[in-house]
Amino acid sequence: MGRTHTVLGAKGKRRLRRSGAAVLVAAVLTAIGPCTVTHRYGPYHGRVTEKETGQPIQGALVLMVFYTEMYTPGGFTSHYVEALETETDREGTFHIPAYRAWKFRFPHQWDPNGYVTIFKPGYGAYSMRLIPPIEDNFIELPKLLTRKERRDNLGTITHPGIPQDKLRKLIDLEDTERNEIRLLPGD
Length: 187
Fold this sequence. Notes:
This protein has a single domain, classed as Immunoglobulin-like. The chain has 3 helices and 10 strands. It is elongated, with a radius of gyration of 26 Å. Strands 3, 4, 7, 8 and 9 form a 5-stranded antiparallel β-sheet that branches. Strands 5-2-10 form a 3-stranded mixed β-sheet, with no helix packed on it. By secondary structure, it is of the alpha+beta class.
């Protein structure tokens, strides 16, 4: 049996180029599909009160942290993008305006939630993966009565992967708490 050869004319070559270009575009879009560029968070509103009395807590630090995440064989890993801080006013309320995060990471996706930490010396820290945006959030902090409670509470405040310059107020408040309960560095 003999071989047959197909000779493409100009129209066939154009069709082949278009098909090749379409396959290339599809491959590139598939490859960069799970990447991050921009994501909108917030706004976040809330009120922080003392758990036992219901009285507003003025001067509590509210730290919102945003991450991207990447799936690995061991599960999702989070990677820091940005941190925003504010403090509660005399009514215990806080407001963090809407924030547009920009970061290109491949093959990451946006963690859709902000992580919040609320802290004031003498009160139990509040750390949560999510507080709903837009809605009013009511957070109660328990008053800590003993040195041991306050020392143990400091160990619950974590901030992995966040640059220290984004944590200045939180670090200052942690230092204030250590000084108030007379902890030595490393205690």
